[in-house]
């Protein structure tokens, strides 16, 4: 059985070196029970926790000052003990199509990216789950320096709330995709804890059917996700139709292999009833040939899937290129002729380093030069 890569699963943000002051707790990392206990110890009734939650998730509060129906003394006590947000926005970029990308600097100096995409009525967000990534996909900026650590529940939620705060009052988040930096299934406890809040009607109130977890395919973690019984959408990044090519592009495949990934995905489909999505980043001259398209149709035969094909977004310093229009059209035609449900995703936010990990690298280089 392939071992899950990387870190201990409940790893939290490390302490800052040399900080004399005890650090405040991150409110978004504090469970409802822990908050209720904290309030009870100070003689406050349990309903105060509900008020605080409402301010956080629907009132869009980013400080205790704005929680106007809490007693002033409680607001002071909360501000002494907790941070509502404990990261900062190192950089924000907006593209012409309205896509906004935030480079979030975490409390220990690590950086992750998250994105708000506007598409018709949809307000989708793409959120990171780890600082860096251990999967090492050769075409991806996020994995170039490996993985530093898992994000905590609060750090994942903070990205969601920071993006929500960028919307006008009249708009709300509609979809969440765990497809930013990191492999979400390598940080399953943190990701599931954050998504529990995201789907809770007293949290962000987003149906699990509008939440997608994107993975390179870690079978044991897919099994755990299925056992959890919450019907999230699962998007499996294939990127190649055979083990030889996939192991080159997605090195973790050497330890796993395509077949076990597909078997785990099939079981997830059987238990959740949610249609599977497969992702395929189309790299010019690498995995965009007619032979690859035909092999892919054979691999997917008999499966009810949506195939998302994403023409590659070039990353500075990497040798991969966007496929030309002809090969994109040919690839599409072969899949469609074979009856595969296929969607070619538009690249949004091209001019703001929209591919995950790019903004972090770009900014890192600018700081270094
Ligand atoms: S594509 Fe996703 S899984 Fe692969 S290295 Fe990048 S962040 Fe990790």
From TrEMBL:
Transmembrane segments: none annotated. Gene3D superfamilies: 1.10.150.530, Aldolase class I. One of its GO terms (molecular function) is rRNA binding. The active site is at residues 113, 356. The keyword Disulfide bond applies. Residues 119-345 form the Radical SAM core domain. Binds 1 [4Fe-4S] cluster. The cluster is coordinated with 3 cysteines and an exchangeable S-adenosyl-L-methionine. Reaction proceeds by a ping-pong mechanism involving intermediate methylation of a conserved cysteine residue. This is Probable dual-specificity RNA methyltransferase RlmN. It comes from Allorhodopirellula solitaria.
């Amino acid at each position: 059985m392939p071992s899950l890569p990387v870190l201990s699963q409940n790893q939290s943000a490390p302490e800052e070196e040399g900080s004399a002051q005890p650090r405040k707790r991150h409110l978004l990392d504090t469970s409802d029970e822990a908050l209720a206990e904290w309030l009870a110890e100070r003689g406050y009734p349990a309903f105060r926790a509900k008020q605080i939650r409402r301010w956080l998730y629907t009132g869009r509060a980013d400080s205790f000052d704005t929680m106007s129906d809490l007693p002033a003394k409680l607001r002071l006590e909360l501000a002494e003990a907790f941070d509502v947000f404990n990261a900062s926005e190192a950089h924000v970029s907006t593209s012409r199509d309205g896509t906004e990308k935030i480079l979030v600097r975490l409390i220990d100096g690590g950086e992750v990216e998250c994105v708000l995409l506007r598409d018709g009525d949809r307000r989708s967000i793409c959120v990171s789950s780890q600082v860096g990534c251990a999967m090492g996909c050769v075409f991806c900026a996020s994995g170039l320096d490996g993985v530093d650590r898992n994000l905590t529940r609060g750090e994942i939620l903070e990205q969601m709330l920071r993006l929500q705060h960028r919307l006008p009052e009249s708009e709300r988040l509609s979809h969440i995709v765990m497809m930013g930096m990191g492999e979400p299934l390598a940080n399953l406890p943190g990701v599931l804890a954050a998504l529990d809040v995201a789907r809770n009607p007293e949290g962000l109130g987003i149906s699990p059917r509008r939440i997608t977890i994107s993975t390179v395919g870690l079978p044991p973690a897919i099994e755990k996700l299925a056992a959890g019984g919450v019907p999230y959408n699962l998007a499996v990044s294939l990127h190649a139709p055979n083990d030889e090519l996939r192991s080159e592009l997605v090195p973790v495949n050497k330890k796993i292999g395509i077949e076990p990934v597909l078997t785990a995905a099939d079981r997830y489909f059987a238990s959740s009833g949610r249609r599977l999505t497969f992702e395929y980043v189309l790299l010019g001259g690498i995995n965009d040939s007619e032979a690859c398209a035909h092999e892919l149709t054979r691999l997917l035969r008999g499966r009810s899937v949506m195939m998302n094909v994403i023409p590659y977004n070039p990353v500075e310093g990497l040798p991969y290129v966007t496929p030309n229009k002809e090969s994109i059209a040919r690839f599409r035609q072969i899949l469609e002729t074979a009856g595969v449900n296929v969607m070619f995703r538009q690249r949004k936010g091209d001019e703001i380093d929209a591919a995950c990990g790019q903004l972090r690298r770009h900014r890192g280089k600018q700081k270094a030069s």
